[in-house]
Amino acid sequence: MEIRLIARYLAGEADAIEEEKVQEWMQADPSNEELMDEFKQIWKASGEERDEFHNQFDLDEGLQELRKRMKSESGSTTTVTHLNSNYLKFTKTRFTQLLRVAAVLLIGSLIGVVVYTSQDISPKPEVTKPVLREIAMDKGQRGNITLSDGTKVILNAESKIVLPDVFKSDKREITLQGEAFLDVAHDPDRPFVVTIDDAVVEVLGTSFGVRSYPDDESVQVVVSDGKVSLGSNEKSKTSNAVLAAGEMGQLYMNDHRIVKKVVDDMDLFLGWKEGWLKFKDTNMEKVARDLERKYDVEIKFADEELKDLKLTAELKSRSFERNLEVISISLGIEYSVGQEVATFYQEKNRED
Questions:
Q1: For the whole model, what pTM was predicted?
Q2: d(CA 248, CA 252)
Q3: What is the rounded distance in angstroms from the CA atom of residue 181 to the CA atom of residue 142?
Q4: Cα separation, 352 vs 342, whole angstroms
Q5: Contact 149, 171 (CB under 8 A)
Q6: CA 262 to CA 245: how far, in whole Å?
Q7: What is the per-residue pLDDT across 24-68, written as a single tens digit (0 to 9) for each?
Q8: For residues 96 and 128, is the Cβ–Cβ distance under 8 A?
C-alpha cells in the first residue's frame, strides 16, 4: 500500500475504488489498522506541526539518516508496507521523528508525492500516466455503472466505455463504443466529455443517450434532460450543435454534417435502457441487429426481401420467442427457432 494512496484517503480525495483498497488493507492485519490510526494523528497534526518540524530538524541531514535506517531494514522504497510495527516501536527516538517528518511531507504534498528510495533519496516529482480501465457488455447483457464523480451510466449490449481511474481536475473524459445512457453529475468546473468515433459530446450535467455501433451511419445523441453540445473531432469539418431536452442530433461519419430534430417519442431511442425495444417504420435488417445484441442470438432471413420490411411494434416481453411472435403477426411472416438461431421466412418457403 503506497503512502500516496493513504494520503488521498486521509484528504478525502480517494475515489470509491481507492477507498475500498485502503479498507481491505486495514482489515487484512490489525497492525495495519494501528498504522492508519498513527497516520490519522499525523494528518491532524500536520497543519500545525509541519512548520515546527522544519524548524527543529535539518531536512537534508534527516533524510540522509532516514536512508541509512531504510538500508539497515533492507527496504527499497518508502511505502506503507515498510512502515510496520518494528518502526513504530521507536516512538521516542530521533528516527521516529524523522519518519514523522517524511510522513507529514508525503501526506501534505498529496498527489505531488516525493518518493524516497534506498538508491536515491533526492526528491523527484512522480510522473504517472493515467490508469485507464475498460467496462464492457457482451451481447445479451446490459449493465448499470456509477462513476467516481457520481455519474450514472447504463451500458447497452455489445458496448464498452474506457475511462481513467480518477478524472482530471479540469475535465471528466470517457470513450464510448456502442450505446449508453448517461445521467451526468453536475459539476460546472469540470465538463463531462464523451468521445465516440469522430464525435465529441460535452455537458456539465444532464441526461442523454448516445449510440454509434459499427453498422450505424451516424453518431446519434438524444437528450432527455438539460443541454448537450455535439461536435466533431474534425473541427474544420463542422460546427457544434447544441441539443436541448427532447431533441436529437446525428453526426454523419461520411461528411461530418450534423442533423438536428425534435423527438416526439423518446422510447423509440431510449426504451432499451428499461429492457425493451420499440420500432417505428424500421426495416427488419436493423431490427434483427438490435435483437441479436439484446438476446445474443443470430437472426437469419430465408428471403432477402424480408430485410426491407418495415416494422412498427413494441417488443416489451422478456421472452425472445414471444417478441418473434409479435413481429411475425405484425408483418404477416413466419419464424423458426433453433439453437441460438432464429429464421424469418415467407409461409411459402417454409421447409418441413
A1: 0.60
A2: 13
A3: 11
A4: 15
A5: no
A6: 9
A7: 878 877 777 777 777 776 666 554 444 444 444 444 444 454 445
A8: no
